[in-house]
Amino acid sequence: MPIDKTKKIKDIAIIVFISFLMVGAVYSAFWGPLRQIIDAYSNSFYPTRTFSVSAEGKVTVSPDIAKFDFSAVSEGKDPKTLAETNNKAISAAIEFVKSNSIDEKDIQTTQYSLSPKYEYDEKTKKSFISGYALTQTVSVKIRDLAKVAGIVGGLPTLGINQIGSISFEIDNQEKFLAEARKQAFEKAKAKAQEMASQNGISIGKIVGFWESGIQPYYGYSS
Hints:
Layout: H1 5-30, H2 35-40, E1 65-76, H3 79-98, E2 107-121, E3 126-142, H4 148-154, E4 162-163, E5 167-169, H5 173-198
């Protein structure tokens, strides 16, 4: 594969230029005449008297809610009949869930779809609608984890023929993220102070910060 010599030369030139600026900045900051120039244009360059540290904060908590979806799926030729069948099953399922002291705000309909089913007629060489599939899905949030098994186990007897996987989560994640963030800041500050002390310098103001990896992850205890 041929090498683009022009691109290679440009890359080398950039590296040399950056290295020169770094050497010039270090020299002028302490001994050289360029100190005044860099100070005058300090807003245009990355701060020369800064260093960065990183730290991690971690908070371990137990899940306090469970979420899952359940659906009633019916197939047939008459959409009206399908709707009546599905509505009956979904209504009974919702009433059952409510009877287990699940608040109405934690029960939401998330899908209602009617899809035609097509078949191909070899004689006429055309496709035609042979029936329909109606799907109604409800999402449930359970705050008392002791009720999960009883609710999930009771749904199939009411005409529910699809139950999604159960996820165990934290309802108020921001509260625990704030705790983890506080830990990270404290660790970063302590690390910065230790590094400054070892190098005989003092710490000024924070010039910038960022965070990443704030998504929770789930583990299992034995």
